TrEMBL record:
Cofactor: Zn(2+)
InterPro entries in UniProt: Aminopeptidase_N-like_N (IPR045357), Aminopeptidase_N-like_N_sf (IPR042097), PepN_Ig-like_sf (IPR038438), Peptidase_M1 (IPR001930), Peptidase_M1_dom (IPR014782), Peptidase_M1_pepN (IPR012779), Peptidase_M1_pepN_C (IPR024601), Peptidase_M1_pepN_C_sf (IPR037144)
Name of the featured protein: Aminopeptidase N
EC number: 3.4.11.2
Family to which this protein belongs: Belongs to the peptidase M1 family.
Length: 857
């Protein structure tokens, strides 16, 4: 049942051209496809094409009907036998039913709009095709539909022709001049309003930009448009890549499984990643939207013009495109903060995945359902690997190698190997074969450091060693090439910054002429998070306090602070609070607050007590209810002890709160942290102050106000929840935050209060956004999920079973919530295990089954 990389075989045919004809009727769509097939393997007489849930009416080869006995349709494919011709046109007349499709894969309907999602294997639900990324074809597409129901008809490329037909129908013909794999095909039909703009490329070509949204949403697209234009410009400046058509369309769709999709010249987005302005969207969301728009746009070259040979190469486009979108955000905002955010995201999500049952290499060795591999490992760890490559060969070589890669493989399907070879082509220090081990290993590598100090010789030796905690994978025993950014602090004013490269299992790095007044020079490792690893050193807690004084690197500062929080939490969980460390740490935080030069986003980071989700991914034998309690206690303690300084800071930043994004975002970020701490200190005065912000015209402040009440049980919580609901009930994108907020609230009736959310008239069971808002928040921010009698787990199990029938993609991701049951203490562990077993007894999708099988082998 597994697909394996080593089984890769070139397809027997090429399909240079595809003509598609879509006739959209009330209850079904007639799809007639003509595939131009060119036999490559002259020994074959058969043709097997993928296809699911398509009713075949007729088949023809070069206009002659194929009799029923010469073809066979099975559940997921079509087999035609006895084909004598080497070049022929296969015509397939089929019927599909988008209205009945709840999976949001292939062609489906969302709020009356017909749309498609083909990546990875959705095209086969629209028409028969080899449906693999190494088959590149030129597409011509005719769409015909009723003019009133479907006034807008879109597909990839350029419009060839538009006509009115009889019976109030119309047709349009699209032609995409660039050969593409089937996963990049897209079609949209429906009542959509178009907001127009344009962009002049560096070679003076005018590109029309059309953003399609549902009527009424036009006022929310300016942010998307300006983000797109910024991205187009940035890709020209940074990578010398220019857009290659004269039209670029984006459509916002309400019911969408993922963030967005890079279909050639017709990007389709989850509406929550298009519709935005500062009244409805938080600063963080604005930045995320800008980043996703950039990501999809950047795919035009890294993914579309150069695509992937097979799905084992998924990170070739995703890792690389994430790397590019991260660079973009770093360039247009603050690169140090961006690095901090990305490192935090990776450590929280990818490290969690990599230490659990669904851990896999960036190039997985096998899969059942490729949709299960759109993971943070493929995306974010993939990006980190490219970041290391860039660091190792330096910018000049990196960009040269990148351009060579693009020009060599333009119009082709490439592999990760080929990419790495291009980047390392003219370099002598890095052995490509050794570097590529990064793609084959799974698990988070661990690096250990030890300092040996010779004061008389002024010589500091750093011993480094690497290992991988997961032994099953044979590649994990091989050494990786690991770039380490370090700083050596000799004293307050003297810092030596260096990048060293660990290439073997054990290695020594020697630094001479080090003059230091410290007992032993202080070293910080992996500054800017230079490699996606964990590490351990001989740095003492006393020294860590010094790091907080000397260090300037944002990542290292926040990481060091995190170490303190964790230490404090662990001691308290053990019922042995270390008051000495706590007090000293609090004084350090006070000095950060008092430092008027500190970046306020960084300050907010430093003052944020870890959440349950952060702690959960890093602990063993965990007692969830106790963790929730300890975190609440700490918020109370820190809020109380820092009160005076926090109030002072509050005053200082209040005047900047209504600046327009990106101005004022650091202040707004900090205010959320301050509010939360102060509320937890039982400060009554702050309550009434915060409530005033719930209907603020800044969504960042409104949501900050709302969310800071999440764990504060008081009558005001209900009041602000109602204010927010009444203001936003008709805006589904914003209302999801209300669903999320309410899913975080713990009420004695336990899961009943969550069930009420599903019964709410504004709950839309087809919306993955709302479903995720409720489910994800409940399991990560509401301790009721971990009710000691197991009722929270059972409740969620029921939801999993029900919703898996509707949408396997959403559920197979969500079910990973149970993947760390082994790290829980009793009775949680047994309760979770019991629940997983119960879920497994049901009829489940292949997606969800594959993940469950990994969770309990
Ligand atoms: N290629 C899209 C992106 O990263 C994601 C599509 C994911 N689709 C899926 N069925 N897993 O931009
Ligand atoms: Zn992508």
């Amino acid at each position: 049942k597994y697909i394996k990389l080593e089984d890769y075989k070139v397809f027997d045919y090429e399909i240079p051209e595809i003509f598609m004809d879509f006739v959209i009727n009330k209850n079904a769509v007639n799809v007639t496809t003509k595939l131009k097939l060119v036999k490559k393997n002259k020994n074959t007489k058969n043709l097997i094409l993928d296809g699911t849930d398509i009713l075949i009416k007729k088949l023809f080869i070069d206009d002659s009907l194929i009799e029923k006995q010469y073809y066979k349709q099975q559940k997921n494919n079509l087999k035609i036998e006895n084909i004598k011709k080497d070049i022929f046109l296969l015509k397939i007349e089929g019927i599909i039913k988008p209205k009945e499709n709840t999976s949001l894969l292939g062609m489906y309907e969302s709020n009356g709009i017909i749309t498609t999602q083909c990546e990875a294997e959705g095209f086969r639900r629209i028409s028969f095709h080899a449906d693999r990324p190494d088959i590149l074809s030129k597409y011509t597409v005719r769409i015909e539909a009723d003019k009133n129901d479907y006034p807008v008809l879109l597909s990839n490329g350029n419009v060839l022709k538009e006509n009115n037909l009889t019976n109030n129908r119309h047709e349009i013909i699209w032609e995409d001049p660039y050969p593409k794999p089937s996963y990049l095909f897209a079609l949209v039909a429906g009542k959509l309003n178009c907001v127009k703009d344009n962009f002049i490329t560096k070679s003076n070509k005018k590109v029309k930009i059309n953003i399609y949204v549902e009527y009424g949403d036009e006022k929310y697209v300016q942010h998307a448009i300006s983000s797109l234009k910024k991205s187009m410009k940035w890709d020209e400046d940074k990578y010398n890549l220019e857009y290659d058509l004269s039209l670029f369309n984006i459509v916002a769709i309400r019911h969408f499984n993922m963030g967005a999709m890079e279909n050639k010249s017709l990007n389709i987005f989850n509406s929550k990643l298009i519709l935005a302005n500062s009244e409805t969207t938080t600063d963080e969301e604005l930045e995320r939207i800008e980043g996703v728009i950039a990501h999809e746009y950047f795919h035009n070259w890294t993914g579309n013009r150069v695509t992937c040979r097979d799905w084992f190469q998924l990170s070739l486009k995703e890792g690389l495109t994430v790397f590019r979108d991260q660079q973009f955000t770093a360039d247009v905002h603050n690169s140090e903060i961006k690095r901090l955010d990305d490192a935090k995201f990776l450590r929280r999500n990818q490290f969690r995945e990599d230490s659990g049952p669904t851990s896999h290499p960036v190039m997985p060795e096998k899969y059942q359902e490729i949709d299960n591999f759109y993971t943070t490992t493929i995306y974010e760890k993939g990006s980190e690997i490219i970041r290391m490559l860039n660091k190792l060969v330096k910018d000049e070589n990196f960009y040269k190698g990148f351009s060579n890669y693009i020009s060599t493989y333009d119009g082709k399907a490439a592999t990760i190997d080929q990419f790495v070879d291009k980047i390392l082509e003219h370099n002598k220090e890095i052995d490509p074969k050794k570097f590529k081990i990064w793609y084959k290993q799974n698990g988070t590598p661990k690096v250990k450091f030890k300092r040996i100090w010779d004061q008389t010789d002024e010589k500091l030796t750093i011993e480094a060693s690497q290992s991988n905690p997961i032994k099953k994978n044979l590649y994990n025993d091989l050494p990786l090439i690991i770039p380490i950014n370090l700083a050596i602090f000799c004293d307050e004013n003297k810092t030596i910054e260096k990048t060293v490269v660990l290439k073997t299992k054990k290695q020594e790095f020697v630094f001479r002429n080090i003059r230091s007044h410290l007992q032993i020079p202080l070293v910080t490792y992996f500054r800017e998070f230079s490699s996606p690893v964990e590490w351990e050193s001989d740095t003492t807690f006393e020294e860590k306090f010094l790091i907080l004084r000397y260090e300037k690197d944002f990542f290292t500062l926040s990481n060091t602070v995190k170490v303190f929080y964790k230490k404090i939490i662990l001691c308290r969980l053990d019922e042995k609070p270390d008051h000495k460390i706590e007090n000293k740490f609090i004084s350090t935080l006070i000095s950060f607050i008092k430092n008027r030069d500190i970046n306020l986003s960084l300050l907010s980071e430093l003052l944020s007590i870890p959440t349950f989700a952060e702690i959960e991914s890093e602990m063993e034998n965990l007692d969830p209810l106790k963790i929730y309690k300890t975190i609440d206690e700490l918020n109370h303690l820190f809020g109380t002890k820092l009160k005076e300084e926090l109030y002072f800071k509050l005053q200082e930043i209040e005047t900047s709160l209504d600046k327009v994004w990106p101005e004022g975002k650091n202040e707004r970020k900090l205010i959320e942290t301050i509010w939360k701490l102060l509320l937890h200190s039982d400060d009554e005065e702050i309550k009434s102050k915060i409530i005033n912000y719930v209907d603020s015209n800044s969504m960042t402040l409104a949501k900050a106000a709302l969310n800071s009440f999440s764990r504060i049980n008081c009558p005001e919580r209900k009041i602000i929840s109602n204010i927010f609901f009444n203001k936003w009930k008709n805006n589904s994108v914003v209302l999801d935050s209300w669903f999320s907020f309410n899913a975080s609230i713990e009420i004695d009736e336990k899961t009943n209060s969550i069930e009420k959310l599903f019964e709410n008239t504004y709950f839309d069971s087809k919306s993955p956004n709302t479903l995720r808002a409720i489910l994800n928040t409940f399991v990560t921010r509401n301790s009721t999920f971990h009710a000691i009698d197991g009722s929270g787990y059972k409740y969620i199990a029921k939801k999993i079973i029900d919703f898996d029938k509707l949408n396997p993609i959403v559920i197979s991701r969500f079910i990973k919530v149970f993947s760390r049951y082994n790290y829980y203490s009793e009775p949680y562990k047994s309760n979770m295990l019991e629940t997983i077993k119960q879920i497994k007894k049901n009829k489940l999708s292949t997606n969800t089954k594959e993940v469950l099988d990994a969770i309990i082998e």
